[in-house]
Amino acid sequence: MSARQLGRSAAGFWWYLLPGAVAFIAIVAVPFGANIYLSLTKWSGVGSPRFIGADNYTRLLQDDVFWGSFRNSLAMVVAMVIVPTVIGLLLASTLFDVIGRRFGNKTASFLRATFYLPQVLPVVVAGILWGWLLRPDGAFNALLNAIGLGGLSHDWLGDPRTALPMVMLVMIWVQIGYPVVIFMAALQRVDPDLYEAAEIDGAGWFRRFQAITLPQIRPETFVVALTCTIAALKVFGPIWALTRGGPNNATTVPSYFAYNAFFNKLQVGYGAAVATALTLLIVIVSLAFLRIQSRTESAEER
Predict the structure, then answer these.
(1) Which pLDDT belongs to residue 43?
(2) How many CA atoms lie within 13 A of 170 on its CB side?
(3) What is the spatial distance between Cα 78 and Cα 222, in angstroms, rounded to a whole number?
(4) Residue 51 DSSP SS3
(5) What is the pTM of this model?
(6) Is 176 helix (H, G, I), strand (E, B) or coil?
């Protein structure tokens, strides 16, 4: 095929990208550009925005609540990425390599479905449900009273010392099913002969997990880590349903901080500055993940 024919053939594929490009510009690029413009203005949402340059960003750098919201985001990363990924890896490996072999695939599939069940619930519904359980007259305090630990009962979500750990606990419960399902699917493509050979050589479960499971499902681990990190950085629904960012901003995260500035304080420009900073952080983290994944895959191919 000549160079001209190759060029003509390649040009034809660009038409397939056109719908996606138009949707990206309309749904992502234009709103983000408008958000950046609003972040450079002072506007209450009524009347015309007044251009103030970078004043909102200067104010952000001096705002303790803003920095506190990002510290809470790190807690969300622990609750929605690190803990669920580690537990999900162990659970998936156990279900596939132990439960599935001894009790059959149906039992392993049933257990996998029970772990995934919280993911089916709308996150706001899960938040409201846990809010009922953790309130002062809720089931959690009733259980503590019933087993003689009534001295520990208190307002778990209304106390700044326990509000964030309780939100983290809820998010771990919600998130665990996602990595379990992804890792179980990844394990289906691993050659069973590898496990059988390791078993014949006398390798125990942990040795098989270390030498076979972890290396074989590394691409899926990157996917889970990346998608869960993005979800943790932009988490909003559970915070809104459980604590509204309180008490005393103890559970405020950047997305709720921006929402509060937009709709409760009517500081649209300031809220837009928070949203812009959050978006840039997510883009930077995503690019870093992809670069690390690319380097790891290149090193494995050598």
Answers:
(1) 92
(2) 28
(3) 16
(4) strand
(5) 0.86
(6) coil
| Distance from the first to the final alpha carbon of the chain | 32
Give the residues across from 41 on adjacent strands: 51
DSSP 62: T
Alpha helices by DSSP H, listed for 78-217, are: 83-94, 100-103, 105-120, 123-134, 139-146, 160-175, 177-188, 192-200, 205-208, 214-216
Is residue 260 over pLDDT 80? yes
pLDDT digits (tens, 9 = 90+) for 150-180: 888 888 999 999 999 999 999 999 999 999 9
What are the percentages of helix, strand and coil residues in the chain, rounded to 5? Answer: 80, 0, 20
Give the number of other CB atoms < 10 A from CB of residue 3: 7
43 torsion bin: left (phi>0), alpha (psi -120 to 50), beta (else): beta
Please name the residues in contact with 159: beta carbons below 8 A apart, sequence gap of 6 or more: 247
Q: Highest-confidence range of 92-106, 111-125, 153-167, by mean pLDDT?
A: 153-167
Three-class SS state of 98? helix
Compute the CA torsion angle 221, 224, 172, 97 (nearest 10 deg).
Answer: -40
Q: Residues 186-222, buried b or exposed e (16+ Cβ, 10 A)? A: bbeebeeeebeebeeeebeeeebbeebbeeebeebbb
